[in-house]
TrEMBL record:
Superkingdom per UniProt: Eukaryota
Sequence ranges assigned to domain FAR1 in this UniProt record: 63-112
Biased composition (Low complexity): 24-44
PANTHER family: OS01G0519700 PROTEIN, PROTEIN FAR1-RELATED SEQUENCE 5-LIKE
Protein's recorded name: FAR1 domain-containing protein
Xref: InterPro entries: FAR1_DNA_bnd_dom
Organism of this sequence: Heracleum sosnowskyi
Length: 391
């Protein structure tokens, strides 16, 4: 029972320690010459690195009890202790010189193969070159698995890398933990350097009472120039994924709005810096129905200090996307309601009176007079219906 259990564990884990049935044919031939007599006699042999045949005694794998043999419950790991006595011990003498105190050459297990030597802990090290690969790969959103494959191609094989995929992942984890506690300060330091090298670069930030970064705004010379040329209409996406943000002038407030999209005051601070660095209000600003954005735009983009106030419009796509959710799929997808509604919603060539008449007729046809959401959308129709943008 004990032997069968150990063999099963060894097969599962890839270990051959303690499993004599898996020794090479050369070693098996030597085993036939060993003595199998009395208890404690030499029953197995293993070739030492020096080429001599060395013997070792069977290891007591368990003790007997009154009911019979006791099963061994091994820990699920890639290797197990096998009682190998091989060692090389140095000691220091009174003359401050080292001498060999003890040397046992024989092993009771096969040594690691040449192809598996790079897995040994002593042969694994994240060198400066490997760390740079992980670091610079992470800067362009390349994970440790792909960077490890790149290192394999760069060094000519996995055995030549000098580290494993686990080492790459561990270093990537440690790197993120290190940066995670200092990312705010690292960003501010970088902005200071950028401002020293380019006077057109602008940034502003605020911290809380504990010193944590809470608000951040920045704009570079290219962004400011682009705003002058193409900045008549700007769309702010308040739900943008901050992990994939690509900073340009039209999304310079993405980080701000993502963190504080439900609070008006931080957005007001960000938009104030926007007007300050650009020197004028937006002509038109398009947002979703974020209440905090509505408050901030109303308070910031106004006609003060010889600035022309901005026109605020709502994103048509966000509103149209809500129709099935607010009115139901059956009405929106199984009837001609949406086709009729789009005729008056999307058209920019009709007059306001035509829209009013068409909207009312559709609402009456489908008996939606009591629908609160449609009533709310109709109340703010001048912010999203193109018929009201004719001027």
């Amino acid at each position: 029972m004990i032997t069968s259990n150990l063999t099963k564990i060894g097969d599962n884990q890839g270990s051959i320690c303690g499993d004599k049935s898996r020794l090479s044919s050369e070693v098996s031939s030597d085993l036939s010459t060993g003595s199998t007599g009395s208890e404690g006699s030499v029953t197995s042999y293993m070739l030492s690195p020096g080429g001599r045949r060395e013997g070792f005694n069977d290891v007591d794998l368990g003790s007997s009890n009154d009911s019979g043999s006791k099963e061994v419950q091994g820990r699920r790991t890639m290797s197990r202790r096998c009682g190998c006595k091989a060692k090389f011990v140095l000691k220091i003498s009174s003359a401050n010189t080292y001498y060999v105190f003890s040397f046992v050459e024989q092993h009771n297990h096969p040594l690691v193969s040449e192809s598996g030597r790079h897995f040994l802990k002593a042969n694994r090290k994240m060198t400066v070159g490997l760390r740079n690969i992980v670091f610079y790969s992470s800067k362009v959103n390349i994970g440790p698995s792909k960077s490890f494959c790149f290192a394999k191609e760069l060094y000519g094989g996995y055995a030549n890398v000098g580290a494993t995929l686990c080492d790459f992942r561990n270093y990537d984890r440690d790197l993120k933990l290190y940066v995670g506690e200092r990312d705010g300060q690292m960003m501010i330091d970088k902005f200071k350097v950028m401002q020293e090298t380019c006077k057109s670069f602008y940034y502003a930030y605020e911290v809380d009472s504990t010193g944590h970064l809470t608000k951040l705004f920045w704009s570079d010379a290219v962004g400011r120039r682009n705003f002058e040329v193409y900045g008549d209409v700007v769309s702010f996406d308040a739900t943008f994924d901050t992990n994939k943000v690509s900073i340009s002038m039209t999304n310079v407030l993405h980080l701000q709005l993502t963190f504080y999209r439900k609070k008006a005051l931080p957005i007001i601070v960000g938009l104030s810096h926007f007007v300050k660095v650009m020197g004028r209000n937006l002509v038109v600003i398009i947002t979703d129905q974020c209440a905090a954005m509505n408050v901030a735009i109303r308070d910031i983009f106004v006609a003060v200090n010889d600035l022309v106030s901005s026109k605020h419009r709502l994103c048509m796509w966000h509103i149209m996307d809500k129709f099935p959710m607010k009115l139901g799929n059956r009405l929106c997808k199984e009837t001609d309601f949406m086709e009729k509604m789009k005729t008056y919603i999307w058209s920019s060539n009709i007059e306001i009176d035509e829209f009013e008449t068409g909207w009312g007729a559709i609402i009456k046809e489908f008996k939606l007079e009591e629908n609160k959401w449609l009533s709310d959308m109709y109340a703010i129709r001048s912010c999203w219906i193109p018929a009201y943008f004719r001027n």
